[in-house]
Design a protein that fits this description.
alpha/beta; eight-stranded parallel sheet; single chain; seven-stranded parallel sheet; 2 domains; Rossmann fold; 16 helices
Length: 414
């Protein structure tokens, strides 16, 4: 397929190697693999293979994704893989006008990539016909469960033909997702790639701190660290806004991504980050799903995630496609129980670190297992170049994003 060559594929990843032949045979599939393993191509290639037999202008395939960003990413990947084919596809999600979607659906499409909420809107208003569907794909089903979409998914499935192929992908398998899979899959083949845990290409570090000193430590770390691009995770939308405002004030090239933003601003932030315009992306868990950027060298957990699954998804933003990445977590004393659970999944203790010459105060004693970080050379000349040139960009007129902070040391976490 010309699209596969144009996408740069030379070898298949493990999930692709196992899933593609089974999907081409028409089997229902339960795919368990962490993020960054090539799941999109694992379902897109057999889907396009099936559609290449003949195009009808009627909807043959439906891919459901939890977020707008992930839906866009899947659609872009399918468009690239279908280069030279006659397939027509569309993305359906909220935050944008529904009328252009209605018009394109009326003209006929073969593949729909949709978020649950907007898809239900189309079903309620009878602006979409799924009676000809023969393939359903649920991507990041566990994320959809976390976001409360499980009832919506079941409603959507009630509108689909009973006779169809279903490809079900998740990084984790909580009981609700396992039950959904049992209800909608018919004699499925289960494909699991490794243990559902953070990739081995990611190094994990903890920096114990108090809540009061967290902001100071965060800026000390980023002031003295050479990186590629960085995603900073916060627990709430309010914290995302506040931390972004502080980065902007300090003249860093940063963008924010959280659920209350308009679709236009979300697209501006993610596209700018993807193109290297921004060095930092401050995001909530849900808003960041679907980000696939190889240049992300660090994930910083400004706030500890609420669940182990959320930690896995966060860390999956770095160390992708066999690249190396680092996961930095700022941990307060109340986080110890979650740390223990994460370490159980990792099957190893996360290295504790402290920062030399940082004033922790007299009321806080960092964990005794902490190891002072060492000032080392930058991890690569490419990252140093990005740091020195990218973070020195001045604020562009008419935008609300920070620019670079000059004069920082080239230091690598180790």
């Amino acid at each position: 397929m010309a699209g596969i060559r144009s996408a740069g594929y030379t070898t298949l990843t493990p999930i692709q190697n196992k899933a593609i032949p089974l999907a081409i045979e028409g089997r229902d599939l339960l795919g368990l693999a962490q993020t960054g393993t090539g799941k999109t191509a694992a379902f897109a290639i057999p889907l396009l293979q099936k559609l290449s037999a003949g195009y009808t202008g009627k909807i043959r395939a439906l891919v459901i994704a939890p977020t707008r960003e992930l839906a866009d990413q899947i659609h872009q990947h399918i468009s690239q893989l279908s280069s030279g084919l006659k397939t027509r596809s569309i993305t359906l999600y909220g935050g944008v006008s529904k009328n252009p979607q209605d018009e394109k659906l009326q003209k006929g499409v073969d593949i729909v990539v949709a978020c649950p909420g907007r898809l239900l809107d189309h079903l309620r208003e009878s602006t979409i016909d799924l009676s000809t569907l023969d393939t359903l794909v649920l991507d990041e089903a566990d994320t959809m469960c976390d976001m409360g979409f499980l009832p919506d998914i079941r409603k959507i499935i009630n509108h689909l033909p009973a006779k169809r192929q279903t490809l079900f992908f998740a990084a984790t398998m909580p009981s609700d997702i396992r039950n959904l899979a049992k209800d909608i899959l018919v004699n499925p083949t289960e494909v699991q790639i490794g243990v559902i845990a953070p990739a081995k290409t990611v190094a994990h570090f903890l920096y114990p701190i108090t809540e009061k000193l967290k902001s100071q430590l965060f800026f000390r770390l980023i002031d003295t660290t050479a990186t590629g691009q960085v995603i900073v995770f916060t627990r709430t939308k309010h914290r995302t806004k506040r931390l972004f405002a502080e980065l902007d004030k300090r003249k860093y090239n940063a963008a924010a991504l959280q659920g209350n933003m308009s679709q236009n601003k979300r697209t501006q932030a993610i596209n700018g980050f993807r193109k290297g315009k921004f060095d930092f992306l401050v995001a909530t868990d849900i808003a960041s799903r679907g980000i696939d950027i190889p240049e992300i060298t660090h994930v910083i957990n400004y706030d500890m995630p609420n669940t182990v699954d959320a930690y896995i998804h966060r860390i999956g933003r770095t160390g992708r496609a066999e690249n190396l990445g680092e996961a930095i977590t700022l941990s307060i004393p109340e986080d110890e129980s979650m740390i223990t659970r994460i370490e159980k999944i990792l099957k190893s203790q996360i290295e504790r670190k402290t920062v030399n010459d940082f004033s922790y105060g007299t009321s806080f004693d960092p964990d005794r297992r902490s190891t002072p970080s060492q000032n080392l050379k930058s991890q690569s000349s490419r990252n140093h170049a990005r740091r020195s040139s990218g973070w020195k960009r001045r604020k562009e007129s008419g935008t609300n994003y920070g620019s670079a902070k000059a004069g920082v040391k080239s230091v690598r976490f180790n």
